[in-house]
# Entry
Amino acid sequence: MTDIRKIENPFFVKVERDFDASVETVFDAWLDGKNVGNWLFATPDGIMKEVDVDPREGGRFIIGEQRGEEYARHVGRYHLIDKPKKIIFSYYYETGDEDELESNVVIEFKATEQGCSIILTHEMDDVYAEYEESAINGWTMIFDGLDAIL
# Structure
């Protein structure tokens, strides 16, 4: 496992979702460089411009989408890939500031009778606490996109 950034004053958002697909299928979707750009950090009106995924521990990813006048670029690194149980990655939303704060994401996968359950915990600096509802809505939209491609 590669080192993950320790967040001094963490704030946590937790989102859970069930999927009607096997735990292996759902797990693999998170690392599929050909399709991840169709749902991860994708918005309904955005145009995906950049997807570069190196799905291994220590590997990096970049997902960039044009959202009107704004270019939304998410840059991250995988810290743990424990198939089919858990993925841990960190990422930041690239703004051009030198002080961009990375956040950490832990995704736990569990097989269910109907398919798979995910528990996603997003750990971020507490300066983002005011964005709790936005973060929950964002991950819910991401899960909706994942569900659509499964």
Observations:
- The helical segments are 23-29, 132-149.
- The chain has one domain: 10-149.
- The first strand starts at residue 10 and ends at 19.
- DSSP finds two helices and seven strands in the chain.
